[in-house]
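Throughout our pipeline, every protein is held as a single compact record rather than as scattered files. Nothing more is needed to write down the fold, since each code stands for a local backbone conformation. The record that follows is passed on verbatim for readers who wish to inspect the format.
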Amino acid sequence: MAAPGRLEGTILNLRTLAPVGLFIAGVACIAASVAAGEAEVSLLIIFPVFSGSSGLFLLGTALVVFSFIAGFMALMVGQAELAGATSGPAGGAPASGDAKRETKYGGVVLIGPVPIAFGSDRSMALAMLVLGIILAIAALVALALLLG
């Protein structure tokens, strides 16, 4: 019998496999459509823009959209399971033998070259800000190389 931690890791891997597989299949369909001359690719500022009218291009676009939907659904299910797994006995108090585990999170949103960082604590937010600045510089360098 597998250990509980090992089983949870396997379920998590299977849960993330569907959105990743859908995304890769969608990108492959779009790439095949571009290679066959049924779709076009252009660059708007730093964002690639794809346009096409073939069924293969439509399938690729639909798969990419479904991959995002499946990914968000997997996140919601995972969060619901996590919330249910961390609840202790009645009243929400943790069981006496359970060790409390602190979870840290953070993220960065780039709006143009401006990074907006957030995190569960100050150190995580600072780390995300540094990552955002590095990503913004990398995007500006890539844009300069493409235009120059």
Q: What stands out?
A: The CA atoms of residues 12 and 144 lie 40 Å apart. The chain is about 60% helix and 15% strand. The two ends are 60 Å apart (CA to CA). The chain has two domains: 1-91, 104-148.
